[in-house]
Amino acid sequence: MSIARRIAVLTSVALAACGSDTLGPPGGLLRLEASIGRARIQLGDTTSLVFRLRNVSHESLTLNFSDSCQILPYITAGAGDQVVYPSGGAWGCYLALTRFTLAPGAERVVSVLVRGGAQATDPGFPLQAGQYQAYAQLEHPDFPVRSASVSFRVE
């Protein structure tokens, strides 16, 4: 391949890499990760679920929302993945314009304290013995990001 042809191919590749589809969600700008303190807890014990929304791009990102729902955690149980957290299976959000900005490499953290077999008055969301999955979603129309699920068990 001639040098002129190589330059033409490299230029085409570089220009294609600079383009973006403004109609679809931007890819790779945000990462939503899930982690848990302990994957097995006993009745009466607590652990924390932590969800981190991280800006993995090289520019600051400002996210505008039409309500108070931003990063929403969920806990599911059973074969049908029935949502047990939040209670009732869905979040209630206030109608309010909200926003936040993430600098490059910055993150926004949401955590949920869960307690095995706890009374409703104890700190943490009470869960009976069983197997559970937890994940979070970013409720933004331009960034439909969902974390991987983490498994844990209450014994």
Notes on the structure:
By secondary structure, the protein is mostly beta strands. The protein has one domain: Sandwich (Immunoglobulin-like). Strands 2-11-10-5-6 form a five-stranded mixed beta sheet, with no helix packed on it. A hairpin with a 4-residue loop joins strand 5 and strand 6. The protein is globular and about 45 Å long. The N and C termini lie far apart (66 Å). The N terminus is likely disordered.
Brief characterization of the structure:
Helix content is 10%, strand content 43%. The chain has one helix at residues 3-18, and strands at 30-36, 40-41, 46-55, 61-65, 71-77, 82-85, 98-102, 107-116, 125-127, 130-138, 150-154.
Gross CATH architecture: Sandwich
Task: Supply the number of structural domains.
Answer: 1
Which structural category fits the helices and strands? Answer: mainly beta
Q: Compute the gyration radius: what is it? A: 21 Å
What's the shape?
Answer: globular
Please report the total strand number as a whole number. 11
Largest pleated sheet: 5 strands, mixed
CATH class value:
Mainly Beta
Strand order of the largest sheet: 2-11-10-5-6
User: If helices are DSSP runs of H or I spanning 4 or more residues, what is the number of helices?
Assistant: 1
Strand content: 35-45%
Tell me roughly what share of residues is in helical segments: 10-25%
Q: What is the rounded distance between the termini?
A: 66 Å
